[in-house]
Write a structure and sequence with these properties.
Shape: flat
Number of strands: 2
Largest sheet: 2 strands, antiparallel
Number of helices: 3
Order of helices and strands: HHHEE
Structural class: mainly alpha
CATH architecture of one domain: Orthogonal Bundle
Oligomer: single chain
CATH topology of one domain: Histone, subunit A
Mean pLDDT: 85
Length: 99
Amino acid sequence: MKITEQEVRYVAGLANLKLTDAEVARFQADLDGILEHIGKLNEIDTSNVEPMAQVLYDAEETATLRADVPAPPLGDQAALANAPQPGAGYFKVPKVIER
């Protein structure tokens, strides 16, 4: 698999990143290595491997997850208490998409 410079620039654009030519070349090599590794993983025969919902699915006695106990909600006033710009019951944030 070979990732192209255009694909690197496209992905950088999706992430709203401005890359130099040197950074594009470095990321092109890095991403190509990642995709090559994924290609090797895809060659492994997993036909006899049962799918798992989660790692601790059958390990109840050794599970390290906490008990799922309901708790009262935080509430709007407490949630917004330390917000830099609360307004009308919401967090006010600067606009981040300007395309």
